[in-house]
From TrEMBL:
Annotated protein name in UniProt: DUF4445 domain-containing protein
Cross-referenced InterPro entries: Corrinoid_activation_enz, Raco-like_middle, Raco-like_middle_sf, RACo_C, RACo_linker
Record organism: Acetobacterium malicum
Lineage: superkingdom: Bacteria
Pfam families in the cross-refs: RACo_C_ter, RACo_linker, Raco_middle
Boundaries of every RACo-like middle region domain copy: 90-250
Stretches assigned to the RACo C-terminal domain: 252-509
RACo linker region domain: residues covered: 5-85
Length: 519
């Protein structure tokens, strides 16, 4: 891609301005603004940049580069530099997740990604899950400041990493687009997110507009824009995902699903968009099992059982240290097909010597002390199973409820978009086998990967997407799953594998018959 092939959120221009003298004593600020009026109309100058004008403009002989951003009807000056710097125009896209944070450094002339880094969110020191962080910060201003500083320090650490990887100074980044759930954005701005979790569940804000990144303690010199949220559980990360999936542009009926700690889903097309969200639980990130772990080196990521022999693979090919979400889904699906567990998830100890009893509780030993990488026996217990099935039941019930509210059958869904790290690595057949996703023709599934980060990048590199973001925020109709009177009884039906109603899962039914599990 050559220069100026994209319409980034920021615009970088070069000006040669006639210097003061010969009776022309107009102020430096006005001199710059007058040079911009014809093309940009009203331009706003921040106090921070005003302090920079002298002596910069005089030393540069009035040959200067300006970075601007369109903010509603007006333009704002973001940066002022000596000489022609148009070739150095950089921005940053961020996925601010509750577990990990990912960041891309982008050339805003071409859209090229110059570097990408990710780190665990520093907030974890104040609680593994979002709710414990919210309780930690509630009505304690000093705790809230600590969580905010942890958020900013994570972003700054990523900026430093990108500096090292690309050789581009973090201060040269003139725009940062951050995509995250509603709570994460509250924490980033140092605003108590408690109202999100207390009736009537309304956040303090949905939209931030442009902010000066320096005011938050970020080491970039430019502006920050946070993807707006729609509701308490439907954040900017979902809006980002929809930008990538494009449900709102298509005639076909699409379903967007992002299952992490929360489950978010949107059903619709260019005529309508209806969304719902609710707590799903940490199970899908491997966060429930004693031997559960995130998808890092040594995590069991796939399992197959053939003729009652269990074989597994790990990330990086190391000896197993634990099991991540995709490994858990495989393990449960394979045990169901092989008869190691019944349809309610209870272990059948006579089916395999790998099913052992420890501390009065059954579990499957997927790695013995000799097989594991840490000399520990690795187990997936009945308690782990129960928690996972709760998560699976919540997620599948949300999907069923959303479809039913709109009078839509699962097979009416033309395209199912799966977002998030979990959706990227999971074995689709396994997920359908246990009833996590509807039993649709497999070609209808689309894995979006990290759509939160991709959506932030899409907006950063295309200012026209700003209209789409505003439209999505306004058009999405939000259903509160918690308000559904029969939600709990439906969840109970979904606690079976794949479901109490086998007819909803015809391919799974056929596979179970083939294995002799069903007549």
């Amino acid at each position: 891609m050559g220069d100026q092939t994209i319409h980034a959120l920021t615009r970088k221009i070069f000006l040669k301005i006639s210097p003061p003298g010969n009776g022309d004593i107009i102020g430096d600020q006005e001199r710059i603004l007058n040079a911009l009026t014809q093309e940009y109309g009203a331009v706003r100058f921040s106090r921070h940049l005003l302090k920079k004008v002298y002596p910069l403009c005089r030393e540069a002989n009035w040959e200067i580069s300006l970075t601007l951003v369109k903010n509603g009807p007006t333009w704002e000056l973001v940066e002022l530099e000596p000489g022609d710097q148009r070739h150095r125009h950089f921005g940053v896209a961020v996925d601010l997740g509750s577990t990990s944070v990912a960041m891309k450094m982008v050339d805003l002339n071409t859209g090229r990604v110059l570097g990408e880094e990710s780190l665990l969110n520093d907030q974890i020191q104040y609680g593994d899950d979002i709710l414990s962080r919210i309780f930690y910060a509630k009505n304690k201003p000093e705790h809230l400041i600590a969580v905010q500083q942890a958020t900013v320090s994570t972003l700054n650490a990523l900026l430093h990493r990108l500096e090292e990887a690309t050789g581009i100074n973090a201060e040269e980044s003139c725009m940062m687009v951050v995509s995250g759930n509603t709570t994460m954005i509250h924490f980033l701005l140092g605003i108590d997110p408690w109202p999100i979790f207390e009736y009537p569940f309304a956040p303090v804000f949905n939209h931030t507009g442009y902010l000066d990144a320096r005011d938050l303690g970020l080491i970039t010199s430019g502006y920050l824009y946070c993807m707006p949220s729609v509701a308490n559980y439907l954040g900017g990360d979902t809006v980002s995902g929809l930008l990538v999936a494009g449900l709102h542009e298509k005639d076909e009926l699409g379903l967007f699903i992002d299952i992490g700690t929360n489950g978010e889903m949107v059903l619709g097309n260019k005529s309508f968009l209806v969304a719902g969200a609710g707590a799903a639980g940490p199970a899908l990130e491997g966060g429930i099992s004693k031997n559960g772990m995130k998808a890092t080196a040594g995590a069991v990521d796939s399992v197959i059982i053939t003729k009652d022999v269990l074989k597994l693979t790990t990330i990086g090919g190391h000896r197993p240290l634990g099991i991540c979400g995709s490994g858990i889904v495989d393990l449960i699906a394979q045990m169901l097909l092989s008869g190691w567990i019944d349809f309610s998830g209870r272990f059948n100890p006579e089916k395999s010597p790998r099913i052992v009893i420890r501390d009065g509780e059954y579990g499957v030993q997927y790695a013995s002390r000799d097989e594991s990488g840490n000399g520990e026996e690795l187990l997936f217990t009945q308690r782990d199973m129960s928690q996972f099935i709760d998560t699976k039941a919540a997620a599948s019930t949300m999907v069923a409820y959303l479809l039913e509210r709109l009078g839509v059958e699962p097979l009416d869904v033309d395209r199912l978009y799966i977002s998030g790290a979990f959706g990227t690595y999971i074995n689709l057949e396994s997920a359908i086998t246990i009833g996590l996703y509807p039993d649709l023709p497999r070609e209808r599934f689309v894995s979006l990967g990290n759509s939160s980060l991709k959506g932030a990048y899409a907006l950063l590199t295309n200012s026209e997407k700003m209209e789409e973001v505003a439209m999505l925020q306004e058009r999405i109709e939000y259903l509160e799953f918690g308000a559904a009177t029969d939600f709990i009884s439906r969840m109970y039906a979904a606690r079976f594998l794949p479901h109490t109603d086998f007819d909803l899962y015809p391919t799974v039914k056929a596979a179970l018959k083939k294995q002799g599990r069903l007549r």
